[in-house]
Design brief:
Layout (H helix, E strand, L loop, with lengths): L18 E8 L3 E9 L6 E9 L5 E2 L2 E2 L2 H15 L5 E6 L4 E9 L3 H12 L10 E14 L6 E13 H13 L3 E7 H10 L8 E7 L3 E8 L2 E9 L4 H11 L3 H11 L15 H27 L6 E7 L8 H9 L3 E3 L18 H13 L5
Parallel strand pairs: 1-6, 6-10, 11-14, 14-15
Antiparallel strand pairs: 1-2, 2-3, 4-5, 7-9, 8-9, 11-12, 12-13
Helix pairs in contact: 1-3, 4-9, 5-6, 5-7, 7-8
The chain binds adenosine-5'-triphosphate and magnesium ion (MG).
The site of adenosine-5'-triphosphate has 21 residues, from helix 5 and helix 6.
Length: 376
């Protein structure tokens, strides 16, 4: 059965000891698979890691639209990786997944889980029997009714509801390549696990901003506990490529190359920048829009969080964040320290496996997916 698991940092327990699993990140621009063994050791050990590009338009807004193309790329990926298992964990980030904070009447945990279907049915955009449901308990609190002043005890939860068909698209594509999806997980939760494997210096919340090709995920967690999740479909680095393509009538590849070569212009605010090429203005303007969206998302979290919430820092991830000038601009706009999310503290990488260049960055999602496998 497929399910979206609540986040947990525990893994490698009981019968799950010494298992081999592949974390599979199916992204708009490429597929990445990392095989880990989950042994007695606290950290999973990386065994194999390979990536391959995915044909354009096989995925759109984080949803599989061309199952045959994805299956073919996965077959090629397995041929390249020579993995020792066909069991995979996949990550999902698209608008078919609803993540929402809710207050529901308190019940003992077993009853609460059983009643969840009935309690959340009305809040879902799809019929409840067409959704995979899970939740993460944020807090147990007492709330006072605005109208009659009565106090009731509630479980404050982060509800995760995935429309079955958006999960099924990935599962069918994987099956087409002879793979078995043992678990589908929320991609932002995978990022949190990767980030939280490094002991926090303090309890203050930290944000993770993951800029992909077609989807940007913004997450806030405190010490591994998710606080806020937003996946923004159709907002990613491909937006910049598309704007260049439209403006200059370039091929996709030309627009990609120009975007990467030019990057953003970094003139201080208020000064008129001298662009290296007129296209750099397009890149800069589009990147400003992307950063504005991220900033608005985090401002929304801060304004809606109860109490005085502050963020200690932002961890940046996803190849879209490699655009020259973007990290600096984001740090300025958010007025927060910024660091790169690194998976290398979360997992053990044997010396014989050299992963350099872009490798480690693309390992964050597969690693975080596998870190969740031992979770209940
Ligand atoms: N050096 C670079 N500078 C700027 N942008 C880059 C660079 N390398 C890759 N990108 C951009 O990053 C994006 C791909 O990011 P990533 O690989 O994280 O996305 P994805 O996982 O394939 O897509 P998604 O998760 O959105 O489905 C592309 O738009 C690409 O142009
Ligand atoms: Mg991605």
């Amino acid at each position: 059965m497929l399910w979206l698991a609540p986040i947990s940092l525990e893994h490698g327990k009981g019968h799950l000891m010494a298992r081999t699993i592949v974390g599979l990140d199916i992204g708009t621009s490429g597929v990445r698979a990392a095989e880990f063994s989950l042994g007695r050791h606290r950290k999973p050990a990386l065994r194999k890691f390979v990536t391959l590009p995915l044909p354009r338009d096989a995925l759109r807004r984080g949803v599989v639209v061309d199952q045959a193309a994805v299956a073919q790329s996965l077959r090629a990926l397995w041929a390249k990786g020579k993995f020792s298992t066909k069991a995979v964990v996949i990550g999902i980030a698209n608008e078919g997944v609803l993540v929402r904070q809710m207050d529901l009447d308190w019940m003992p945990p077993a009853d609460f889980r059983k009643a969840l279907h009935y309690q959340v049915a009305e809040a879902l955009p799809v019929p409840v029997n067409e959704a995979n449901l899970d939740y993460h308990l944020l807090d147990e609190v007492e709330v006072t009714d605005e109208h009659d002043g009565t106090v009731r005890r509630v479980n404050r939860i982060l509800l995760v509801a995935a429309a079955r068909d958006v999960v099924d698209g990935f599962v069918t594509a994987a099956q087409g390549a002879g793979l078995r999806v043992t678990r589908a997980d929320l991609l932002p939760f995978a990022l949190i696990r990767t980030a939280a494997s490094v002991p926090a210096e303090h309890q203050q919340a930290e944000a993770i901003v993951h800029i992909g090709a077609d989807t940007t995920s913004v997450v806030v967690h405190s010490d591994g506990r998710p606080r806020f999740v937003r996946m923004i479909p159709s907002i990613g680095s491909n937006t910049i490529t598309k704007a260049l393509q439209d403006r200059y009538d370039w091929s996709w590849e030309e627009a990609e190359r120009s975007k990467i070569a030019l990057g953003m212009h970094s003139a201080p605010v208020g000064e008129t920048p001298g662009y290296e090429h007129p296209a750099q203005q397009v890149v800069t303007e589009e990147a400003h829009k992307l950063v504005a969206e991220i900033r608005a998302t985090l401002e929304f979290f801060i304004s809606s969080a109860s109490g005085s919430e502050t963020l200690s820092k932002v961890l940046l991830s996803g190849a879209g964040s490699w655009l020259t000038g973007l990290p600096e601009h984001l740090a300025d706009e958010l007025a927060l320290p910024l660091e790169w999310l690194s998976p290398l503290d979360a997992v053990r990488v044997p010396r014989r496996l050299r992963i350099d260049g872009d490798g480690p960055a693309h390992l964050s999602v597969p690693a975080g997916l596998c870190l969740g496998v031992g979770a209940a």
